[in-house]
Design a protein that fits this description.
34% strand; alpha+beta; three-stranded antiparallel β-sheet; elongated; 2 helices; single chain
Length: 70
Protein backbone atom coordinates (compact mmCIF):
# COMPACT_ATOMS: atom_id res chain seq x y z
CA UNK A 1 0.00 0.00 0.00
CA UNK A 2 2.85 2.37 0.82
CA UNK A 3 4.39 1.72 -2.61
CA UNK A 4 1.12 2.58 -4.36
CA UNK A 5 0.80 5.81 -2.36
CA UNK A 6 4.38 6.78 -3.23
CA UNK A 7 3.84 6.05 -6.93
CA UNK A 8 0.62 8.06 -6.97
CA UNK A 9 2.29 11.01 -5.25
CA UNK A 10 5.24 10.90 -7.68
CA UNK A 11 2.88 10.82 -10.67
CA UNK A 12 0.87 13.75 -9.34
CA UNK A 13 3.98 15.84 -8.66
CA UNK A 14 5.47 15.12 -12.07
CA UNK A 15 2.23 16.18 -13.75
CA UNK A 16 2.27 19.44 -11.79
CA UNK A 17 5.88 20.20 -12.64
CA UNK A 18 5.26 19.51 -16.35
CA UNK A 19 2.45 22.08 -16.41
CA UNK A 20 4.55 24.62 -14.52
CA UNK A 21 6.81 25.19 -17.55
CA UNK A 22 4.04 26.69 -19.68
CA UNK A 23 3.60 30.45 -19.58
CA UNK A 24 0.91 32.51 -21.30
CA UNK A 25 1.71 35.84 -22.95
CA UNK A 26 -0.27 38.33 -24.99
CA UNK A 27 0.52 41.09 -27.46
CA UNK A 28 -1.25 43.77 -29.44
CA UNK A 29 -0.36 45.38 -32.75
CA UNK A 30 -1.94 46.80 -35.86
CA UNK A 31 -1.06 43.70 -37.94
CA UNK A 32 -0.85 39.93 -37.42
CA UNK A 33 2.87 39.97 -38.27
CA UNK A 34 3.51 42.70 -35.72
CA UNK A 35 1.66 40.87 -32.95
CA UNK A 36 3.53 37.66 -33.72
CA UNK A 37 6.83 39.56 -33.65
CA UNK A 38 5.93 40.81 -30.16
CA UNK A 39 5.14 37.23 -29.07
CA UNK A 40 8.45 35.99 -30.52
CA UNK A 41 10.34 38.73 -28.65
CA UNK A 42 8.63 37.81 -25.38
CA UNK A 43 9.43 34.13 -25.96
CA UNK A 44 13.09 34.93 -26.59
CA UNK A 45 13.28 37.14 -23.49
CA UNK A 46 11.73 34.39 -21.36
CA UNK A 47 14.14 31.77 -22.73
CA UNK A 48 11.37 29.68 -24.28
CA UNK A 49 12.35 27.11 -26.89
CA UNK A 50 9.10 27.62 -28.83
CA UNK A 51 5.64 29.13 -28.62
CA UNK A 52 2.15 28.18 -29.74
CA UNK A 53 -0.35 30.87 -30.69
CA UNK A 54 -3.57 30.03 -28.88
CA UNK A 55 -5.80 32.86 -30.12
CA UNK A 56 -5.81 35.93 -32.32
CA UNK A 57 -8.49 38.56 -32.77
CA UNK A 58 -8.53 41.40 -35.28
CA UNK A 59 -10.95 44.28 -34.71
CA UNK A 60 -9.44 47.76 -34.93
CA UNK A 61 -6.12 46.11 -34.13
CA UNK A 62 -4.79 42.63 -33.47
CA UNK A 63 -4.82 40.97 -30.04
CA UNK A 64 -2.89 37.68 -29.81
CA UNK A 65 -2.19 35.21 -27.01
CA UNK A 66 0.36 32.42 -26.97
CA UNK A 67 1.68 29.66 -24.74
CA UNK A 68 5.46 29.58 -24.27
CA UNK A 69 7.14 26.16 -24.16
CA UNK A 70 10.48 25.44 -22.54
Amino acid sequence: MKTMTTLFAAAALSALSFGAFAQSVSATSSTLDGAEAHIAAQAKAAGASSYTITSARADNGVYMTAELNR
